[in-house]
Amino acid sequence: MIRQLLPDRLDDFISYYKPLKPRKELNAATYTISDLLQGITVSRGGETVAGFNAALLPLEQQANIVRALKRRFESSLFDIRSLVQADLFENELDAAEELNKKGFQRGAGAISGVVLEGHLAGVCEQHQIPVGKNPSIGELNDTLRKRDVLDIPTWRFVQHLGDIRNLCDHKKATEPTKEQIHELVDGTRKITKTVF
User: Fold this and answer.
1) Is residue 60 in some structural domain?
2) 72 within some domain
3) Is residue 149 a part of any domain in this protein?
4) Rounded distance, CA 89 to CA 189, Å?
């Protein structure tokens, strides 16, 4: 795992267990875990210079590398999840664009709204911001603004996109136009690529 996720630390990890090259002298600084496992101790004048205590530092360093590996692994999983989610969002926005071209504005707007809502919820999760169950675009937008994740112009832009989405999801006297849906799809695409 170290070779795959932290290749620059592999030699260090191994060297804490056993020396990578011949040692000129065996002392506390060159003592490794394998020396301890072989029962090797170094004494001078009846006093132990390198033994169990000398092996603790290399063992602690290995443990630190493993902890870093765990954080890196969790980060890699997040990166993979983010890539898959971005690809899924892009496909959904492509579908919304196609629906809009064919005259299905409400459906296209609803799909775009779901993508925008999903992305904003993911941003809240990334910033460890708690949100209620099934929050709306407006609630997510306001929460992100209050936590200074969104600046005022971005917050207003998302507010505008949420208004267009609401026009699609609720029967109103006016129907959403192709231009509005195009703006919603493009705006959602922009937010998914710029707000993290």
Assistant:
1) yes
2) no
3) yes
4) 8
44 φ, ψ (degrees, to nearest 5) = -140, 125
Domain that holds residue 158: 103-194
Q: In the chain, what's the furthest Cα-to-Cα distance?
A: 97
Domain count, the chain: 2
pTM above 0.85, yes or no: no
Closest CA relative to residue 17, chosen from 38, 2, 35, 5 = 35
What is the spatial distance between Cα 45 and Cα 29, in angstroms, rounded to a whole number? 18
- Find the distance separating the first CA and the last CA of the chain, reported in whole Å: 29
- pLDDT tens for 37-62 read 999 999 988 888 898 989 999 999 99
Residue 101, amino acid: K
Per-residue pLDDT reduced to its tens digit, 83-101: 677 778 889 999 999 999 9
